[in-house]
């Protein structure tokens, strides 16, 4: 019986290693077709899942509570599965080099529990070559099995967009790759069970790895170009969004906007590519420049707010500044690598003492653990001299001028609109947008 047949006849199971923003939607989708083991080393997370709690808000508590997934942090349970999907984090270190520790440790524990005939697919974003050069040797050493003979490896990058209810797992074409044609075909068939949009068979694991890291680098560079334009247009007193609207009337114009680039994908993945290119003797210029521009946007926005305060004769030190939105993007509780924190850090560096941060999606406990910030309830965001709306959560997009005016002190009205949400109401405020 083929590995695919064994799976669909439920004689074996599929495991997902790493149940976060990527792993949990996969586990839930596959659990509708196959027996699924959901493994995570974080005991607290597994306990939450067992209680039907969804901290990422990606699939919803009800889906988790009703999904037939065997949640576990006991690695021996992985032996019950023969098809494994790895979706553990791939962050960067403080000096912006790939931090492969989570993926290496996932390979160690998978290797200890590997059986002959098993298929493993890596979904974590890595640089081209990482699966074959880093993961396979660990798996072989731990299992005493041989890759390509006893067990088989593939790579399928994840392209979901947390918080986006249109581009969901099922509706995005999935790139799949395998160590040989037979493995590629099995991996493609397994993903076709859940991906309505279909799969794209990449010719090699390296190509699939590269496709992911460059699609995010391409986005990073394009946003960096917009950010550079926005900084220059600010000096020229030209509204960038007006320029982009005019430019967009050409048939081949690309639609990108300036903004903060945080999170642990677009703001991180390009470093994987830069670092690997560097090892091969190529010093990246375009990708590295894009990263530098985007990483500087928090400082730029903080400086804008300071300038506006000075122009309005408001004491910077005594100013009461409110920030709406802390997560790295809209409609999602993810605060990892959020660039709103850069705005806060730079405001502090100018001596601003009162910075009140509010976010309708972020989790208070996580925010204080990660950044030592105490969130302010939106209702207490009052008597402000300046309001910075940093994230375009749907709830903030609804605000009318009268709602926004509630946040300000009687004589103040400095509105720094990073996402350009209130352009139509600009006449009601001392207004700036990116
Ligand atoms: N979040 C996204 O939007 C997104 C999109 C596409 C690709 N990716 C990539 O997918 C991967 C996972 O990202 P994520 O956002 O789901 O991360 P996440 O932090 O939300 O989830 C990862 C999970 O893995 C667990 N984990 C860590 N080390 C482990 C180990 N050794 N064994 C088992 N579990 C372990 C963590 O406890 C966590 O629950 C990353 O490589 C990321 O770059 C993420």
UniProtKB/TrEMBL annotation:
<dbReference type="GO" id="GO:0000271">
    <property type="term" value="P:polysaccharide biosynthetic process"/>
</dbReference>
<dbReference type="InterPro" id="IPR014026">
    <property type="entry name" value="UDP-Glc/GDP-Man_DH_dimer"/>
</dbReference>
<dbReference type="InterPro" id="IPR008927">
    <property type="entry name" value="6-PGluconate_DH-like_C_sf"/>
</dbReference>
<dbReference type="InterPro" id="IPR036220">
    <property type="entry name" value="UDP-Glc/GDP-Man_DH_C_sf"/>
</dbReference>
<dbReference type="GO" id="GO:0016628">
    <property type="term" value="F:oxidoreductase activity, acting on the CH-CH group of donors, NAD or NADP as acceptor"/>
</dbReference>
<dbReference type="GO" id="GO:0016616">
    <property type="term" value="F:oxidoreductase activity, acting on the CH-OH group of donors, NAD or NADP as acceptor"/>
</dbReference>
<dbReference type="GO" id="GO:0051287">
    <property type="term" value="F:NAD binding"/>
</dbReference>
<dbReference type="InterPro" id="IPR017476">
    <property type="entry name" value="UDP-Glc/GDP-Man"/>
</dbReference>
<dbReference type="InterPro" id="IPR028359">
    <property type="entry name" value="UDP_ManNAc/GlcNAc_DH"/>
</dbReference>
<dbReference type="Pfam" id="PF03721">
    <property type="entry name" value="UDPG_MGDP_dh_N"/>
</dbReference>
<dbReference type="Pfam" id="PF00984">
    <property type="entry name" value="UDPG_MGDP_dh"/>
</dbReference>
<keyword id="KW-1133">Transmembrane helix</keyword>
<dbReference type="InterPro" id="IPR036291">
    <property type="entry name" value="NAD(P)-bd_dom_sf"/>
</dbReference>
<keyword id="KW-0472">Membrane</keyword>
<dbReference type="InterPro" id="IPR014027">
    <property type="entry name" value="UDP-Glc/GDP-Man_DH_C"/>
</dbReference>
<keyword id="KW-0520">NAD</keyword>
<dbReference type="InterPro" id="IPR001732">
    <property type="entry name" value="UDP-Glc/GDP-Man_DH_N"/>
</dbReference>
<protein>
    <submittedName>
        <fullName>UDP-N-acetyl-D-galactosamine dehydrogenase</fullName>
    </submittedName>
</protein>
<feature type="domain" description="UDP-glucose/GDP-mannose dehydrogenase C-terminal">
    <location>
        <begin position="322"/>
        <end position="424"/>
    </location>
</feature>
<comment type="similarity">
    <text>Belongs to the UDP-glucose/GDP-mannose dehydrogenase family.</text>
</comment>
<feature type="transmembrane region" description="Helical">
    <location>
        <begin position="12"/>
        <end position="30"/>
    </location>
</feature>
<keyword id="KW-0560">Oxidoreductase</keyword>
<keyword id="KW-0812">Transmembrane</keyword>
<dbReference type="Pfam" id="PF03720">
    <property type="entry name" value="UDPG_MGDP_dh_C"/>
</dbReference>
């Amino acid at each position: 019986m083929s590995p695919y047949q064994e799976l669909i006849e439920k004689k074996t199971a599929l495991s997902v290693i790493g149940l976060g923003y990527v792993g949990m939607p996969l586990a839930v989708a596959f659990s509708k077709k196959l027996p699924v083991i959901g493994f995570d080393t974080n005991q607290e997370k597994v306990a939450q899942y067992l209680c039907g709690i969804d901290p990422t808000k990606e699939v919803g508590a009800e889906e988790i509570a009703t999904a037939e997934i065997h949640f576990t942090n006991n690695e021996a349970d992985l032996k019950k599965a023969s098809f494994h999907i790895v979706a553990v984090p791939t962050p960067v270190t403080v000096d912006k080099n790939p931090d492969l520790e989570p993926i290496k440790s996932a390979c160690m524990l998978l290797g200890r529990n590997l059986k002959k005939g098993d298929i493993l697919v890596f979904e974590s974003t890595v640089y081209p070559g990482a699966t074959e050069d880093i993961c396979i040797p660990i798996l072989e050493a731990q299992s005493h099995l041989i890759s390509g003979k006893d067990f088989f490896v593939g790579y399928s990058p994840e392209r979901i967009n947390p918080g986006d209810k249109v581009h969901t797992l099922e509706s995005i074409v999935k790139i799949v790759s395998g160590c040989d044609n037979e493995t590629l075909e099995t991996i493609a068939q397994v993903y076709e069970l859940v991906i309505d949009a279909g799969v794209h068979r990449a010719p090699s694991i390296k190509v699939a790895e590269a496709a992911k890291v460059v699609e995010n680098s391409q986005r990073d560079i394009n946003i960096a170009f917009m950010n550079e334009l926005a900084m220059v247009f600010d000096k020229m007193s030209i509204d960038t969004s007006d320029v982009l609207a005019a430019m967009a009337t050409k048939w081949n114009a690309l639609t990108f906007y300036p903004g903060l680039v945080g999170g642990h994908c677009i703001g991180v993945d390009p470093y994987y590519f830069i670092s690997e290119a560097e090892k091969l003797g190529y010093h990246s210029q375009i990708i590295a420049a894009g990263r530098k521009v985007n990483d500087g946007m928090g400082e730029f926005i903080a400086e804008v707010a300071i300038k506006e305060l000075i122009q309005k004769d408001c004491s910077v030190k005594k100013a009461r500044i409110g920030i709406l939105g802390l997560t790295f993007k809209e409609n999602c509780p993810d605060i990892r690598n959020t660039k709103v924190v850069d705005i806060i850090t730079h405001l502090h560096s100018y001596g601003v003492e009162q910075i009140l941060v509010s976010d309708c999606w972020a989790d208070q406990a996580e925010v204080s653990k990660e950044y030592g910030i105490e969130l302010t309830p939106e209702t207490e965001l009052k008597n402000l001299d300046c309001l910075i709306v940093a994230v375009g959560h749907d709830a903030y997009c609804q605000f009318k001028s009268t709602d926004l005016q509630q946040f300000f002190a009687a004589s103040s009205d400095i509105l720094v609109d990073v996402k350009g949400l209130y352009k139509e109401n600009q006449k009601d405020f001392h207004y700036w947008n990116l």
